[in-house]
């Protein structure tokens, strides 16, 4: 694909137009300059600076420990790399649940200090005031419903959400609310495919699924999972396109052998 011959920025309006004409939206996580350059060159529509950086980059068990300063650091690195994709940044746990004022201040810091284009918040009705206040400052907001990893201690497991009627009905109500107050899109994580279909058909704004099946208007994965950099993570929804853990390990082992044996550097690799 020749996306960089004529670089046209992806905006929230472009995503809306994609939904209208039935074109699927691609989203992947990005946390650093080098990987974000590759994702952008490959034509990914949206790069999510996800709080999954807490797991993938920092090695925490959950997304809860990552801080606003750390999210801004990751987002700034991504912004420096990207020419085309829309860049969305997760508001970290603790920066929007308790106070809409803190939510707004946090979103403004992300936009001002990183140069990103939008923020994402997990939840529905319970964070309505925070979303409204951020939107009132002109900052685009992406919602996130279903399995919301910042609530993992409430859920207790990373199992599929909203299988029961009550929770599914609540999710539909929340999705309608997020659209009504002005979110430009929403992630639907790990819910039944039939529910994703129902929500996506009800909404005029795009849905982006992860473990939500084929009917979402777009798909998102954690890049390190797709590339097989993460190990021993094989949920049903994940398609791994490479096994980079093993490839990189093999290359590094070869380098170690070459140095130890005196094979590297050779005469041509010195001055
Ligand atoms: O933080 C993240 O990577 C996410 C995606 C899984 C949607 O929120």
What tags apply to this protein structure?
8 strands, globular, eight-stranded parallel beta barrel, TIM Barrel, alpha/beta
State the gist of this model:
The protein is an alpha/beta fold and 271 residues long. Helix content is 42%, strand content 13%.
Would you kindly provide a written description of the structure presented here, covering whatever features stand out?
This protein is α/β, with parallel strands linked by helices and about 270 residues long. It folds into 2 domains: about 5-240, Alpha-Beta Barrel (TIM Barrel); about 245-270, no CATH class. About 40% of the residues lie in helices and about 15% in strands. The chain is built from 11 helices and 8 strands. Strands 1-2-3-4-5-6-7-8 form an 8-stranded parallel beta barrel, surrounded by 7 helices. α2 (about 35-40) crosses α4, α4 runs parallel beside α5 and α8 packs parallel to α9 (about 195-200). 3-methyl-2-oxobutanoic acid binds near residues 29, 90, 187 and 222.
Write the layout of secondary structure elements.
Layout: H1 12-20, E1 25-29, H2 33-41, E2 46-49, H3 53-56, H4 68-81, E3 86-90, H5 100-114, E4 118-120, H6 128-136, E5 141-146, H7 152-155, H8 165-181, E6 185-189, H9 193-202, E7 207-210, E8 218-221, H10 223-226, H11 244-261
Parallel strand pairs: 1-2, 1-8, 2-3, 3-4, 4-5, 5-6, 6-7, 7-8
Helix pairs in contact: 2-4, 4-5, 5-6, 8-9
